[in-house]
Amino acid sequence: MNTTVATPQSETGAFFAILRRDLYVTWSELPIFLAQVILQPLFVLFVFGKLLGSLGYTRSVYASLLFPGMLALTVIITSMQTLAFPLVVEFGWTKEIEDRLLAPLRLGLVAAEKIVFAALRGVIAAALMIPVGILVLGSIPWRWSALPLFLGVLILAALLGAGLGLVLGTLVPPNQINAVLSLVFTPLLFTGCSQYPWPSLARLHWFQIITAGNPITYASEGLRAALVPSVPHIRPWISLTILVAALALLIAIGIGGFYRRAVD
Amino acid sequence: MNRSVVEVRDLVKRYPRSPVNAVDAISFSVEHGEVFGLLGPNGAGKTTTVGVLTTRIRPTSGSAVVADVDVLRQPTLARGRLGVVPQRSNLDRSLSIRNNLIFHAAYHGIPASERGARADVLLEQFGLRERAKTKPDFISGGQSQRIMIARALMHEPHVLFLDEPTTGLDPAARLFVWDRLRELRQRRVTIVLTTHDMHEAAQLADRAAIMDHGKLLAIDTPQALVRSLPGAATLELAAEILDGGSADEVFAALRGLPGVEAVERVQAQPQTNGRLSPVLADPEQAGSETTHALRVRLYVSGDAPMLVAPAASTFAEHRLAITDVKLGNPTLEDVFIHLTGRTLR
């Protein structure tokens, strides 16, 4: 007889099995992951933080305000990229996700695993950025006393990027994902206050308003508050509050979208 | 042991913005150990039905119970008890074939210590041992189908759902899959399969449900479905008319035989034995042939072979010498045509 189920399935067990699958795949494709994460911030830090400074076009303080901004950007973009495009492909073409949608756990937990995994990749990217920053810039701004704020903003930023990826990956129709990603990507990249502090935009008020609408701004400002408090920045409690609110909104929309894609 | 493993009642699914029901109030049940075939053309609603039973589609109304679990109320629990083999490959392309099986088992809570051994047994059984380390991108359609069946069996489901398991496979791959499914049937694994191939249903299914436009038109064993066809079996007889014989009289006599629903004269098909073909090679000569030879087809309800002897005596009585006998058995395809007025493809 072939009708005995070996063990009573637990949803937690299934959740961690799926997470293990994602980590296993990341591990087996480690060089690709590293290149994906490191290349862009490496060049940005080198050109804007090091090169322009040594050529005398920027002041030395610029590198120290650029670093936290690039850290925020890298975390969010890495988490977002982990989910957005792969999710569209899995739902739309390869259907690879089906075996996990048919696993004995609630679909919300499958989506939650996606978020946790993407956020983990974002945090790993941040951890990699620290040696990259030291290597390129010679030294990076660091304050042990601000570690709780630093970690808090970092984790929120990682989850935020994952939420953004979940929303894009489930709401954008497969045939439009390329267009949408490039339309979303570039503005996100340049309006997130990663390359400039937000308060300094007061002179360019219209742009300051635009950047206020990009959640990456609050991650950049939050990390700046932690690492280089001497640079004018948005107050940390405001940044944290907006990050939490944006995260809640994105996750609600994203999980809704996930259910719509997973069940007809 | 005769208990229902699948129980579907008044199931309806209407997709948003569709004027008709994809599944239109169907009911059926599948017994333990049974192979149940859902048979119908593309778009009949088979895949939607399986989608509901496997928790991937929410029905508009009705109920569905799989392995004692209401799939609408407890989809998570139901997923642990069912296995799914989809129409198109959905293998995890980032994992090797063996790891596809191993991780599937992990999702379903099979202890780590058992996963490897189970995977190896199934890989062996499905002829995949040499491909164990290959990634799914590098294998054929027939092999993906086998891997997906093996994967679905990793958590020993109460019931296995297969959606068009051999569509698009070459004949050898199809036979291999059929053989594996027959083995599962021998092990009394409950199977629900959809197919638009009547032959496949006749080969594999203990019972088949014929589905069209979202409705179930008939459910029975393939043999009973075929037997239910009025006059679908045929008996074809060719004869030479001897001196004093009469074609017209033999016609009337054949019509009177029990079980014969109709008799018609047919143009003889070219025969390889050469007896009739020289006469009929030219259709213009078909008229002149009537004086020498006759070919008739009897439409029979019930068993056509039983009519061979009485038909032969009738011919002999009327001085006709039989030259050829051919039995035509109806197929599920004929049943489908009878029920819907259309061919399958």
Helix content of chain A: over 70%
- CATH-assigned fold name of the largest domain in chain B: Rossmann fold
> What is the name of the CATH superfamily of the largest domain in chain B?
P-loop containing nucleotide triphosphate hydrolases
User: What's the mean pLDDT score of chain A?
Assistant: 90
Question: What features would you describe in this structure?
Answer:
The complex is a heterodimer of chains A (264) and B (345). Chain A contains 10 helices and no strands. By secondary structure, chain A is an all-alpha fold. Chain A has one domain. Chain A is globular, with a radius of gyration of 20 Å. The two termini of chain A are 34 Å apart. Chain B is of the alpha/beta class. Chain B has 2 domains: 4-226, 3-Layer(aba) Sandwich (Rossmann fold); 233-329, Alpha-Beta Plaits (2-Layer Sandwich), CATH 3.30.70. Chain B has 13 helices and 14 strands. Chain B has helices at residues 46-53, 75-81, 97-107, 112-125, 141-153, 171-186, 198-204, 222-227, 247-255, 277-280, 286-289, 308-317, 332-340, and strands at 4-13, 23-31, 35-39, 61-66, 69-70, 82-85, 159-163, 190-195, 207-212, 215-220, 233-241, 260-265, 293-300, 320-328. Chain B has a 6-stranded mixed sheet, sandwiched between helices. In chain B, a hairpin with a 2-residue loop joins strand 9 (207-212) and strand 10 (215-220). Chain B is elongated, with a radius of gyration of 26 Å. The two termini of chain B are 38 Å apart. Chains A and B meet through helix 1 and helix 4 of A and helix 2 and helix 3 of B.
Strand and helix map with partners:
The complex is a heterodimer of chains A (264) and B (345).
Chain A: H1 11-28, H2 30-54, H3 60-94, H4 98-101, H5 107-137, H6 147-171, H7 177-190, H8 205-212, H9 216-227, H10 236-262
Helix pairs in contact in A: 1-5, 2-3, 2-5, 3-5, 3-6, 3-7, 3-9, 5-6, 5-10, 6-9, 6-10, 9-10
Chain B: E1 4-13, E2 23-31, E3 35-39, H1 46-53, E4 61-66, E5 69-70, H2 75-81, E6 82-85, H3 97-107, H4 112-125, H5 141-153, E7 159-163, H6 171-186, E8 190-195, H7 198-204, E9 207-212, E10 215-220, H8 222-227, E11 233-241, H9 247-255, E12 260-265, H10 277-280, H11 286-289, E13 293-300, H12 308-317, E14 320-328, H13 332-340
Parallel strand pairs in B: 3-8, 3-9, 6-7, 7-8
Antiparallel strand pairs in B: 1-2, 1-4, 4-5, 9-10, 11-13, 11-14, 12-13
Helix pairs in contact in B: 3-4, 3-5
